[in-house]
Amino acid sequence: MRHIPTDLVTRYEREGWWTRDTIGDLLTRGLDAAPETEFRVHSTVRPWSGTFGDVELVARRLAGGLRARGVGPGDVVVFQLPNWMEAAAVFWASAFLGATVVPVVHFYGRKELGHILGETKPKVFVCAEKFGRSEFDADLCADVPIVGVVGRDFDELLDAEPMDGTVPTDPSGPALIAFTSGTTRAPKGVVHSHQTLGCETRQLADRYPPDRGKQLTAAPVGHFIGMVNAFLIPVLDGTAINLTDVWDPARALALMKSDGLTVGGGATYFVTSLLDHPEFTSGHIPFMKYAGLGGSSVPAAVTTRLAALGIIVFRAYGSTEHPSITVSYYTAPEEKRLFTDGEAAPGVEIRLADDGEILSRGPDLCLGYTDMTLNELAFDDEGWYHTGDIGVLDEDGYLTITDRKADIIIRGGENIGALEVEEILLGLPGVAEAAAVAAPDSRLGEHVAAVLRLKPGHTMPTMDEVREHFDRAGVAKQKWPEELHRIDDFPRTASGKIQKFVVRQDIATLD
User: Is residue 213 within 8 Å of residue 260, measured between CB atoms?
Assistant: First the structure.
């Protein structure tokens, strides 16, 4: 893992950011305190209703079954599931066992999932038999010793007797590996310890408004923040868990009225898709009192629109590597909440390099990557994380993101590596050169725009041809281009590299 300076370790322990609790310890105390708390899955294909105690029983039976099969601290458990009860059971069971859990977003395709399984070499893999475009592929997990398929044989992993307590494990050791797409061709594995994950969970819980109501979680639990918001924070707070496995604005609006559920933010798409829906009325505003936005670019047009409706907007900035770099609290001045990405979170330090790149370090910063070569590029000997983002600080210490050095597109909170998209585009007949860049999206923040330079005598592919090509490549649909543009030649640096920032700026003028 990356080098963490001794003085930082001492400080985080002295100031209470890092404790001796494991994630299993945190869950056990929270579940013991509120066993009757509601747990519901709002789904058309796999609805479920029960309590924390009901789900904990499944989790502890699963922990018992896995322990009997030799799973314990140091072993890796991968799950690729929608926002279902079984996802919570797998996560909680892994925590009780002291195993390292690897959540995978349910829409990742064969290519991404195959890379993750090869990178982590899990002892256990749990997935859905079928959900949406995803379907169980026995060949992909042929080398995994223990496989459970929800909808087929998952229950066979459950022991008759639930496992008591937690298996002792080192709180500074790996608790979670979260995969995020970046500038490389394959997702990057980000390793968090019990201490960094526990710190992040407490950080988020402490800054949420106490009167936020019963939250509906639509963000995928296979994503870092979706998982924390769904399966950790409610247990710490003793508040109800309400999940939906497909984001349907009409269903969310109906649940506000029928069940009193609230939507409290996330990526801008979740909020704007509600406001833009024809069934949205002023009667829904009381169920959208707050909007904590982050995970993708947050246009000022969106924050001011929400504020005009009386919704209290507050923003945050972070990443899977460093989840809470800056925050603006719901009590902060409106100008800061609407137009900046917040101030340094408690315990976190930020500074700007000479070129404006944001450097951060803090008790919720990850241990590093599964690919050790990436650690040397992202972390320095003083413990600073080089984010790849460019920003400015105002006189009050509030940060505003102005540009991005890293070559990624953030669509609805999901990172998409431009290089991976470009390599697939180059497989299209007649494509000489390709650039994938972020294009503004009023719902999702950004989406993929493909800019192509063609070989002489070739015609531009149609959008249908591009979609079929990406489908055959087996990548997640979120990575498919949603705009196509042709260019005679790209703007370039003196060394011939494509100037992506110029392409992004000029994309609206391309034919």
Answer: yes
Q: Find, among 356, 352, 355, 365, the residue nearest to 325 by Cα.
A: 365
138 in the Ramachandran plot: left (φ > 0), alpha (ψ -120 to 50) or beta?
alpha
DSSP 283: G
φ, ψ dihedrals at 309, nearest 5°: -85, 0
What pLDDT does 88 receive? Answer: 98
CA distance 33 to 51: 13
| Residue indicated by tokens 């996802």 | 87
pLDDT of residue 348: 98
Contacts of 434 (CB under 8 A, 6+ apart): 422, 425, 426, 450, 451, 452, 453
Q: What share of the chain is helix, strand, coil (3-state, %, to 5)?
A: 35, 25, 40
Q: For the chain, which residues make up each domain, given as ranges?
A: 408-509
Q: What is the pLDDT of residues 148-206, one digit of tens each?
A: 999 999 999 999 999 999 999 999 999 999 998 755 557 899 999 999 999 999 999 98
- Do residues 375 and 2 lie in contact, with contact meaning Cβ atoms separated by under 8 Å? yes
Residue 130 vs residues 220, 230, 289, 299, 384: alpha-carbon distances, Å? 16, 22, 36, 36, 42
pTM: 0.84
Write the CB contacts of 74 (distance below 8 Å, at least 6 apart in sequence): 98, 99, 100, 173
pLDDT tens per residue across span 79-128: 999 999 999 999 999 999 999 999 999 888 888 999 999 999 999 999 99
Q: Is 496 exposed, middle or buried (0-12, 13-18, 19+ CB in 10 A)?
A: exposed
What superfamily in CATH does domain 408-509 come from?
ANL, C-terminal domain (3.30.300.30)
Coil/strand/helix, residue 347: coil
Query: Which residue is it, tokens 């920032």?
Result: 501
The answer to whether the beta carbons of residues 122 and 76 sit under 8 Å apart is: yes
